[in-house]
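Minutes, project huddle
Topic: does the predicted pose make sense with nicotinamide-adenine-dinucleotide bound?
PN asked that the exact inputs be recorded in the minutes so nobody has to dig through chat later. Recorded below.
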Amino acid sequence: MPLNTHFDALYIGGQWIKPANSSVEAVINPASEEVIGEAPVGTVDDAERAIAAARKAFDEGPWPRMSWLERAAILQKFHDALLARKDEIVALCVAEAGSIVPVANIMQFDMAMDGFQYYIHQIQRRDFSVPSSVSVHTNWATGGETLGSTVKVYEPLGVSVGITAYNYPFFLNLAKLGPALASGCTFILKPAPQTPLEALILGDVASEIGLPEGVFSIITGGINVGEKLTTDPRVDQISFTGSDKVGAIIQAQAAPTLKRVALELGGKSAMIVCEDADLQQAAFNGVVNFTNQCGQGCVLQTRQIVHNSIKADYIEMLKAMVSQVNIGDPADPETGMGPLISDTQRQRVLAYIEQGKADGNRLVYGGKIPAGLDKGFYLEPTIFDCASNSTTIAQEEIFGPVVCVMGFDTDEEAIAIANDSQYGLSGGVFSQDAGRAYRIAMQMRTGGVLINGGGGRLNPTVPFGGYKRSGIGKEYGEEGLNEYLEIKVIDFRAA
Ligand code: NAD
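Predicted holo structure (tokens), as shared on screen:
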């Protein structure tokens, strides 16, 4: 079945239902400004229907009561049906989110699928922890662990809502769908308004594999829909990926009903380049860190803190490398950097560039709309040499292809600059001395540090998440599944 990109209905609890106001909007390719499909705009009434369906399916339906293995088998079908559509989904990631082909292939699709598969494997393993001494009293299907006279069991938390950002939509949607459904929760996905298609296609696959009624819904739309989903008392958990500003609002919206909230938020991550680093390796990673997805990446290390003895050489190397990056149509395999998601986002980034110049930072490269690219939301990769980390462009998340390079003399100074941020999502250290790099990494107040660029690919067995204003909670690893689970303890009388 070819991939559908023309939707006039929402996927609500297993059925395709026209939105309450019948409103449908065109979806725009950010590279060409051409229409690539249509998507319905969900309303509060649609969210209401999805919540009612999810609540009923959780309270009365088979999904949370199945064994881990039964759920794993259904999710494996879901996984395999997505895999069978890889080429079409990758093409959609290019057309809707503006991802260049390798990013769409690896970061959006392959890594998302690795994560989904990992959650399936994780729940398959959980079935084998049946406590032998008390197994007659426990439901073998739910597993459990004996602690003295007590059995500890994990149970699905309830109705889960996933709200996602626009930058890597397919990846982000699967990062919530996988653990929510694996845990036995029922799940409502609200994608970003800019990228509805990478969510709605999941409805087609869910229909194909036959998820039980009510288990999964997709409600597109904006703030009003998000507000409904995060305030309704029938929703138990929110998993949000987006900006820190909206994350704080969601936490407040969810507070009166005491929902469990997991927040994956923004960043302004620091990359420390020591004087003993392999400069070419560092500069190559430096370029990737502000050009990947046109700088629209939460983990990108857009503050590059370079030892003063090599800073001038580093900047020259960045310039030389970035001048080789082809900017243009992300569908062209030769392209190294595609567009921003919208003109609104481009204007926001351009305003930061103006602010950076007005604040006295030295513009070293870029800063403009590239010549000859009149259609599409392109912007030149932009390098600033910043005198101080306190300047606005070094403190705020720009979410565009802009890097701030700063100098340091001692490791303590580099660590202090790195930690002088409201965020703490990612980080990097480049040094040929592994011990020194590790000591620096240990002192960085951030959820993850890549030494010399790290493994280069998401490892789904490893928890991911931020410190400070970069978030609360983790995705991936056992910790990621636990965000969607309750722990129950059942204590037997010994005699
Ligand atoms: P955003 O915060 O503007 O929007 C994210 C989602 O929240 C959208 O679906 C939006 O419709 C919804 N929303 C907005 N107001 C809401 C409300 N009051 N209640 C409920 N939902 C509401 O983010 P964006 O511009 O789409 O994405 C960019 C941001 O996402 C950046 O800050 C980036 O760092 C962050 N991000 C973080 C991660 C991570 O894993 N930490 C990954 C990707 C993106």
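Observations noted during the meeting:
- Residues 163-167, 172, 190, 192-193, 222-223, 226-227, 230, 241-243, 246, 249-250, 253, 264-267, 298, 397, 399, 425, 466, 471 surround nicotinamide-adenine-dinucleotide (CB under 6 Å).
- Residues 270-459 form a domain with the Aldehyde Dehydrogenase; Chain A, domain 2 fold (CATH 3.40.309.10).
No decisions taken; revisit at the next huddle.
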